[in-house]
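Risk register update: the risk of archive-format incompatibility is retired. Evidence:
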Amino acid sequence: MVPSYIKAKQDGSLEEKAEELEKMASPCVLCPRQCKARRKEGSLGYCKAPYELYVSSAFPHFGEEAPLVGSRGSGTLFLTHCNIRCVFCQNYEISFFGDGAPTSPKDLAHMMVRLQKAGCHNINFVTPTHYVPQIVQAISYAIDMGLSIPLVFNCGGYESLEVIRLLEGIFDIYMPDIKFLDPNLSQRYLNARDYPQVVKEVVREMHRQVGDLKTDSQGVAERGLIIRHLVMPSHIEDTKEVLRFVREEISKDAFVNIMAQYHPCHKAFEFPEIGRRITEAEYLEALEFARKIGLRRAATH
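Archived output:
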C-alpha cells in the first residue's frame, strides 16, 4: 500500500497544508487550549514547547502495539513537551522538562529516512501536536529522500479538530489515547474539563479518515485507527464509558489497546485515589467488559 502522503506531495496539497499549519503556530492555536503564545517570538504557551522542534530520541521501538512493531520495530520519534501535561505523566522528563535536542525539519527528515533504512515498518511521532507544522515540512523533505512507509500520529487525544482535518491524506495511522470521559476526572488530572468532548470529536474524525485498522499479510499495520486506553486505579467505571463509546460510536471492530501498565509517577501521589498501581481485579473487569459489549479487537499491553 502506497502511503497517502506520497499523493499529497504529488498534487501539491502537502505544501498547502504545511502553510496553513504554519499560520496556526504563532500565535499558537494548534491545540484546544488556544493559548495563542507567540512562539516565533520566544513566548512559551501551556505546553512550554518553543517554536523550534525538539526531539528526545529516535529509535526502532519494540514495545509498541504488535501491529506497529512487526518483526523490525516501529521507527519512533519521541518529541519533547506536551499540551496535556497529565499529573500522572510517566514520561515527565520529556513532556514537562523538555529533555531533548533542537532539530530542524531537514534533520528530522534525515532521522525518518534512517529509521526506514534500519528496517522499521513505520514512522511513529509521539506527542506531535505542538510540532505539527515542522513535522509536515519534514515529511516533504523526507519524501524527496525516499521515505515510503506509513506515518503514525501518536497523541494524547486532546487535539484541534481543524488540525486533524488538515492532516487528512498525510497520516495513514492515528493512535490517540482516550484518557477519561468524565469531565470531573479530566479537569482533576489533565486540567482540561473539555477533554471528553474534544477527544470524542477527534476520534470520530480520525476514524472517518482512515477507518478500522488494516494490516498486511504479516499482521503489520498499513492504515487505520489504533485506540489506547490506560486503565486507572479507582476509575473502572470511566474505563467502561470509554469502551462503550468506542463500541457504540466508533466501531465494534476498532482496535483498542487496554493498557495495564499504570504506575504512580510525577505528581500522582498528590492524588490518593491514583497513588497506587491498578489491581488485577480492576484490569480483569475492564477486559471482561470489553468482551461483554462485543469489542472484537480489544488488545492487552
